[in-house]
Amino acid sequence: MERTNPKDMAKSFRFSPLRRARFRMSVTRMDQLPADDGAEVAIAGRSNVGKSSVLNLLTGHGGLARVSRTPGRTQAINVFDLDPGQRLMDLPGYGYAKVPDALRLSWGDLLEDYLRRRTSLRLLLLVMDIRHPLGSHDLALLDFARHCGRPVHALLNKADKLSRGAALQVLAQARRNPALEGVGLQCFSTQSGLGLEELHWLLARTYEKETPVETGAKSEPSKGGEGSGPGQGGKSQDRNATTAGFE
Fold first, then answer.
1. DSSP string covering 202-218
2. Distance CA 203, CA 206 (A)
3. Residue 25 and residue 125: Cα distance in Å, rounded?
4. Does 1 reside within a domain?
C-alpha cells in the first residue's frame, strides 16, 4: 500500500499547477468552451458556501475568483488555464432562490450538459458548508454525477466555524450517508488553511492521471488526519491523499 510522505505533500503544494492559474474566459454555452482535451477539475457548490474563496486559496491568487457578498453571482463557467492542457473550471453556483427562474434553469442546463458531455473532466470538486451539508441541490448533483460516472471529492468547508469535535462529528455522519458512497470527503477551511496541502496533493495526482479517477469504495482516514480519499475503483493506494486533519 502506498503511503503519502508529508514532504511529498508539501512539495506538491509548493509546485502545484494550480499556483499558475490564470483566467481565460467565461462561457454560457458548451460550444464556447476550450477544446475538449487535456485534463480539467471542476468546482461546484451551492451559492454562498465559499466556492470562490476555495478557488482563490487553491490558486494562491486572492482576487482570481471574485468573492461577492451577493450569492448566485457566478452565472457562467469560468475557465482558468494552468499548465498546458490543464484547466480549472468554476461552475455556476446553484440553489439561490432570488435568481430569476429562467436564468436558474439555464445554469442548470449548462451544468448538466458539462457533466454529461465533457470528456476531459477528471474530477468534480463539490464544496459544501459543513454547518449545512448535503442539501437537496447537493444531493441532486451527487446523484447526477454518479449517473454520469463522474468521480467526486467533497469539501466540508468553513470547518473553522465549528469546534474540532463538532466538525469531526459532521464528517463521521457524512461518511455514513449513502449519497457519499465512493466520494472523497474532507474537512476544509479557507480561513485556517485546514486541508489545503492534502487537497493540493490530490489535485496534482488527478491532473497527472491519463484517465479520470474511478469511483469506488471509500478509503479510511490515516492516523494523521481526518478525511477519506476519493474512491479508486476499490483500490486504496491513494488513501492518504486527502487526509484533511486537525493537527
1. HHHHHHH-SSPPPP-PP
2. 5
3. 20
4. no
Interval 126-137: pLDDT, tens:
999 999 999 998
| Residue 236 domain flag | no
Question: pLDDT (tens digit, 9 = 90+) per residue, 60-95?
Answer: 887 777 654 444 455 789 999 999 999 999 998 886
Residue 20: phi and psi, rounded to 5, are: -105, 20
Q: Report if residue 243 sits inside a domain.
A: no
**151's grid cell:** 468521480
| Domain CATH for 68 | 3.40.50.300
Phi, psi of 48 (to 5 degrees): 75, 25
Would you say 94 and 137 are in contact if contact means Cβ atoms under 8 Å apart?
A: yes
Residue 155 has pLDDT above 90, yes or no: yes
pLDDT band at 12 (very low <50, low <70, confident <90, very high): low
Looking only at the bridges linking them, the beta strands covering 184-187 and 86-90 are unpaired
Lowest mean pLDDT, pick from 50-59, 93-102, 113-122, 200-209? 93-102
Cα–Cα distance, 81 to 145 (Å, whole number)? 23
pTM equals 0.79
Contact criterion met (CB below 8 Å) for 155 and 199: yes
In a domain, 212, yes or no: yes
Cβ atoms of residues 20 and 82 within 8 Å: yes
For residue 132, give its domain range: 6-228
For cell 466540508, name the residue.
Answer: 156
Bridge-based pairing state of the strands 22-27 and 77-81: antiparallel
Query: CA of 30: how far to CAs of 170, 177, 183, in Å?
Result: 36, 33, 26
Cell of 104: 436558474
Do the Cβ atoms of 232 and 48 come closer than 8 Å?
A: no
Domain total in the chain: 1
